[in-house]
Design brief:
binds tetrahydrodeoxyuridine; 5-stranded mixed β-sheet; about 25% helix; single chain
Length: about 140
């Protein structure tokens, strides 16, 4: 049986680095708010994403759901943690992303600023169930 993946500080650091790297590739010419995200799957693999915007505004997608799509397409179905990186550590996943992620486990959510964000660079840590209490999920549909 595969070994259980836990969120060690080394993995926190990897997620932070992956989300910051992905943020560099964000396509956000309209809001100028670049976001990177990195998901740690229970396989131990990390999947990154960045937000992309569109001239037809509603066609854009958040970084978290880009990372989620990449992970799901690779066959992952359960996640241990997600790190989301914005300009500073006040970033927090939007409501749609909270719902999208909550389908796949009560993961840890790390909210981080970009490397150059100075005092706002402490990583804030939550459980997804804190950010989305009383959620509606797969358990309601069985
Ligand atoms: N955005 C994300 O990618 N993730 C979040 O957690 C918050 C918001 C994006 C959407 C849009 O491209 C830009 O940030 C401004 O809202």
């Amino acid at each position: 049986m595969a070994r259980k993946i836990t969120l060690t500080n080394a993995r926190r650091a990897e997620l932070l680095a992956a989300s910051r790297a992905a943020r560099q590739n964000a396509y956000a010419p309209y809001s100028n708010y670049k976001v990177g995200a990195a998901l740690l799957a229970d396989s131990g693999r990390i999947y990154a994403g960045a937000n992309f915007e569109n001239a037809a505004y509603g066609a854009g997608t958040c970084a978290e759901r880009v990372a989620l799509g990449a992970a799901l397409a690779a066959g992952e179905r359960k996640f241990i943690a997600v790190c989301v990186c914005g300009a500073d550590n006040t970033i927090s996943p939007c409501g749609i992303c909270r719902q999208a992620l909550c389908e796949f486990g009560d993961m840890t959510v790390l909210c981080a600023g970009a490397e150059d964000s100075g005092p706002g660079s402490a990583v804030r840590e939550f459980k997804l169930s804190e950010l989305l209490p009383e959620s509606f999920g797969p358990a309601q549909l069985v």
